[in-house]
Design goal:
The complex is a heterodimer of chains A (about 550) and B (about 375). Chain A is mainly alpha-helical and about 550 residues long. Chain A has four domains: about 170 residues, no CATH class; about 30 residues, no CATH class; about 45 residues, no CATH class; about 230 residues, MetI-like (MetI-like fold, Orthogonal Bundle). Helix content of chain A is about 80%, strand content about 0%. Chain A has a two-stranded antiparallel ribbon with strand order 1-4. In chain A, strands 2-3 form a two-stranded antiparallel sheet. In chain A, helix 6 packs antiparallel against helix 7, helix 14 crosses helix 16 and helix 17 crosses helix 18. Chain A is extended and about 90 Å long. Chain B is an alpha/beta fold. Chain B has two domains: about 210 residues, Rossmann fold, CATH 3.40.50.300; about 70 residues, CBS-domain (Roll). Chain B has a six-stranded mixed beta sheet, with helices on both faces. A four-stranded antiparallel beta sheet of chain B has the order 2-1-4-5, with helices on both faces. Chain B has a three-stranded mixed beta sheet with strand order 11-12-13. In chain B, helix 1 crosses helix 10, helix 8 packs across helix 9 and helix 16 packs antiparallel against helix 17. The longest helix of chain B has 18 residues. Chain B is globular, with a radius of gyration of 24 Å. The N terminus of chain B is likely disordered. The chains are: A mainly alpha (about 550), B alpha/beta (about 375). Chains A and B meet through helix 17 and helix 18 of A and helix 5, strand 6 and helix 7 of B.
Chain lengths: ~550, ~375
């Protein structure tokens, strides 16, 4: 021992190094075996191939063009056996699409044969073209789908392996029962889908005829019954008697009365027709007996809009333009002012001035209403749990409804014109005001509020001196969004007669005058950009 | 700093016992949770632990059976680790938190009995509060932040400005009145926090870990300054801290809190020399005793001293000190001298402090 310690330290060191390296190699070998065993346990069958592949993936040595041949051939069958359902659906979907294209090939060749018989040359050409295209699509889909599955297979399978390491309940190995499930899915999906691709689907109306014929007890052949049940519109299950008709004539003293008349129609109607009529009647009822409410709202909206239009439309264009430039320069600086000037010149030389001002008036009117209503609502949502519980779901729904749909209630109760246009605009652009106000209020730090309370602030002082000032940036962001959304909705509201630039676009669309529509569209875009710049810059310099 | 400390100490020591305390806290409990009343009853009956209460009632015990008095011009420190309930406790004084049970009197008035308006008046007029995270209003200037309490009382802008400027001077923030809080460093922001609490000239200051978020040097500076201010203004102060050093530096008296319970109340010397339990003893271990332990604690009776075979001859030539002299000054006297220090009261020899006794005193045995 002592002699060895006397030998050169270098030697012992190198010896130690070698020993360490050996030990490490052994250890890593052991680890390798350990990992390989895990690979094998996971793969169950063909474990050698999968161990090799997984190791390559772990070492980042998998070549880009690596395909799993079993998956290439077996596609969704392979995926089902291995329990990778994502790959199963990808593979099954691509194969089904290829098959459906083959079905279309069949369908169009039948149609082509019929066309040849009828001697319609243009139909023959069209159908032979379509036949070729779908044949090509079928082949491409099949080949690309298979290649995709083959390429994805081992990569996805390795992910499945990683998931399995974490949670042993994840599918592993090969299982017959999974294959049975896959077969069931194929049997349920494939035949009908393929049948649909080879057939012309009967129209909904044709199927209603079939249904009536069956109701009347007339004989209907099996194919049309089957087709109507499976490959046309979903068959109508609920048949209802037409609802009674309501009317609201004025009596001699001017008051409305209600007259109910049983429907004389013999045929029952489906749920859609029935409910539409019922809704129409309810709205008519409300308008007949509570019309004064809607008239009152219309009057107020009209008054507000008139006051604003008096400023923007009623003032000479030179004055208004100067005012805009001044505002832009004061709040947003020279660059935005130049952009504003360019926009104003555009509006002027293309003759959009009055129309644009009318749009701006609607935007301003709706913004005012949104702020007046949305701010207190936002404060309530921000401060009260119940307010948030009531309003938040409503806002969620409001924001998922497409803007067009807002026109419906406005038209229903307020007919057409500018006031319902403003109303639709207000409803559409209110949510961000409420949400951002509430957010701003909620973001005020609890400690700051506590400090204010500790110095004797009343709830009202807390709101006005602490919460609202601290929420201002958020509130201003809400105003900005309200303005932008109002503008977009004010354009759409032209459909119900709100006028303005949107009307030019709608009108141009109706008459296929693309050029006119485009010019008006550019005017709208320019106005939007100018407003956005001014409001944003004003916010930034303000805060 | 030393003068400030001495001043508050003497005020406390000489406060006549019959003067009613400014803040009285009696048997206060705070239990958080929906079933707090139920939980309180069960705790009182069965003496449950914190964990048991949480388990059975889903309620958290914040403050448990706390009683103490704070006298006029005193700095009363509440020291405890995070979660010990000290911040919860201090919020009971101005009723930012309602107690589950118990009574709090400020200036003899039951805080729990005040209506909303009276409570706001109490908070605005009589109690100033300083927060650990400053909690300044970021959209207001330093001056407007300081004048905030006055503004809430509808004091007019001119008076507000005058008063604020005066307080700005008090906390040495001259020239910063028109700055925004974000422009100031943490230490300066906390001065603003202090100034805001002082602006309405309240009788009581509640300080919730005011210096904890600051770095040590600035913290020390602010501590000294506050002590000086406190000596001049004599505001009754409830000072919350998690730092025993700070509590000892600042406090006339210290209450040590653990798990919502006050474990011990006493002067810094009491706490250091006779900790109530192992928990306090653990805390006190690392504390320097130089300025906390006084001659009367370490001195030996002269007779005992002579019985040990020492001579009491020539005590006139020995260095002399009063019984209130701290270890620090005793050491200064004892170095480079053969003789022990003679402790005299009214000229009469009352004790002897040998070097051995000094060393033992520092060690705390």
């Amino acid at each position: 021992m002592s002699t060895s310690s006397e030998s050169t330290t270098q030697e012992t060191e190198s010896l130690a190094e070698v020993a360490a390296a050996q030990k490490e190699a052994q250890a890593s070998g052991a680890a390798d075996r350990e990992v390989n065993r895990a690979f094998a346990t996971f793969a169950e069958q063909n474990e050698e191939y999968y161990s090799r592949t997984f190791l390559k993936i772990q070492q980042s040595k998998l070549p880009f063009l690596h395909f799993n041949k079993a998956a290439l051939v077996g596609s969704f069958v392979w995926a089902a056996l291995r329990g990778n359902w994502l790959l199963f659906w990808i593979g099954f979907a691509t194969d089904m699409m290829a098959a459906a294209n083959l079905g279309l090939v069949y369908r169009f060749s039948v149609a082509k044969a019929a066309a040849i018989e009828a001697d319609k040359s243009f139909l023959i050409e069209r159908f032979s073209n379509w036949t070729m295209l779908h044949l090509l699509a079928a082949v491409l889909l099949f080949v690309i789908g298979r290649l995709l599955i083959g390429w994805l297979a081992d990569r996805f399978y390795y992910r499945q392996y990683s998931a399995w390491r974490i949670n042993p309940k994840v599918n592993s190995g090969v299982s017959k029962s999974r294959w049975m499930v896959a077969a069931l899915i194929v049997v349920l999906v494939a035949p009908l889908t393929l049948y649909r691709s080879t057939q012309e689907a009967p129209e909904a109306r044709a199927c209603i005829k079939v249904a009536r014929a069956m109701q009347d007890g007339k004989p209907v052949d099996f194919k049309s019954r089957f087709d109507c049940l499976t490959i046309s519109e979903v068959p109508t299950v609920v048949w209802l008697k037409r609802p009674p008709q309501f009317s609201f004539p004025r009596a001699e003293d001017g008051t409305r009365t209600m007259v109910v008349k049983e429907s004389t129609a013999k045929r029952p109607v489906n749920l859609n027709v029935w409910l539409s009529e019922v809704i129409d009647q309810r709205i008519d009822y409300a308008k007949a007996f509570y019309g004064y409410i809607f008239d009152g709202i219309t009057k107020w909206l009209r008054t507000l809009l008139n006051a604003i239009e008096a400023v923007f439309v009623g003032t000479p264009w030179l004055v208004t333009a100067g005012l805009f430039l001044l505002i832009a320069f004061h709040f947003a600086g020279p660059r935005v002012a130049i952009f504003t000037a360019a926009t104003l010149i555009y509006l002027g030389i293309f003759g959009f001035w009055q129309t644009a001002m009318s749009t701006v008036s609607i935007v301003i009117a709706s913004t005012i209403i949104c702020v007046v209503v949305g701010l207190p609502l936002g404060v309530w949502v921000g401060k009260s749990r119940r307010g948030s519980a009531i309003v938040t779901p409503i806002l969620d729904v409001m924001q998922t409804i497409p803007s067009f749909v807002y026109l419906l209630p406005a038209v229903a109760f307020f007919s057409i014109g500018k006031p319902p246009g403003i109303l639709a605009t207000v409803i559409f652009s209110m949510p961000p005001m409420v949400r951002l106000t509430a957010l701003g209020i909620k973001q005020v730090p609890e400690s700051t509020k506590e400090a204010a309370l500790a110095f004797g602030a009343s709830p009202r002082q807390l709101l006005t001196r602490v919460e609202l000032p601290l929420a201002t940036p958020s509130i201003m962001a809400g105003v900005n969004q309200v303005v932008m959304m109002s503008l977009s909705m004010a354009v759409i509201a032209a459909i119900i007669g709100a006028g303005g630039l949107g009307f030019i676009v709608v009108d141009a669309l109706g008459q296929s005058q693309v050029g006119r529509g485009m010019l008006a569209g550019i005017a709208i875009a320019l106005i939007a950009m100018v407003i956005d710049r001014i409001v944003q810059r004003a916010n930034r310099s303000g805060s | 700093m030393q003068s400030g400390k001495d001043n508050t100490m003497t005020v406390d020591a000489t406060a006549p016992p019959d003067v009613s305390p400014v803040i009285q806290v009696r048997d206060v409990w705070k239990i958080f949770g929906d079933r707090s009343a139920e939980a309180l009853e069960a705790i009182r009956k069965e003496n449950l632990s914190k964990a048991e209460v949480l388990d059975r009632f889903e309620a958290v015990v914040g403050v448990r059976e706390v009683s103490f008095d704070v006298h006029e011009s005193e700095i009363f420190c509440i020291m405890g680790l995070s979660g010990s309930g000290k911040s919860t406790l201090v919020r009971h004084i101005n009723r930012l938190i309602e107690p589950t049970h118990g009574e709090i009197k400020v200036g003899g008035v039951d805080v729990g009995g005040l209506n909303a308006k009276e409570l706001r008046l109490l908070r605005a007029d009589r109690i100033g509060m300083v927060f650990q995270n400053m909690a300044l209003l970021p959209h207001r200037t330093v001056r407007d932040n300081i004048g905030f309490a006055l503004e809430l009382r509808n004091v007019d802008a001119f008076t507000r400005m005058q008063l604020s400027d005066k307080v700005i001077e008090t906390v040495s923030l001259q020239g910063y009145g028109d700055r925004m809080p974000a422009e100031l460093s943490g230490g300066m922001q906390q001065r603003v926090g202090l100034a805001r609490a002082l602006a309405a000239d309240p009788e009581i200051l509640l300080m919730d870990e005011p210096f904890s978020a600051l770095d040590p040097l600035i913290r020390r500076g602010l501590q000294d300054e506050f002590l000086e201010l406190s000596a001049v203004m004599g505001k009754t102060t409830l000072f919350i801290t998690h730092d025993l050093d700070e509590a000892i530096r600042m406090g006339s008296r210290i209450a040590i809190m653990k798990d919502g319970v006050i474990v011990q109340i006493g002067t810094p010397e009491d706490i250091v020399t006779s900790p109530a339990d192992d928990y306090v003893a653990d805390f006190v271990q690392g504390i320097s005793r130089l300025k906390l332990v006084f001659a009367h604690t370490v001195m030996q009776d002269p007779e005992q001293y002579s019985q040990q075979g020492h001579s009491l001859e020539g005590t006139e030539t020995w260095p002399e000190a009063s019984p209130e002299a701290d270890l620090d000054s005793l050491i200064s006297m004892a170095v480079n001298r053969e003789q022990p220090v003679a402790i005299r009261e009214d000229g009469k020899l009352v004790g002897v402090v040998t070097k051995d006794a000094l060393l033992r005193g520092i060690q705390g045995e």
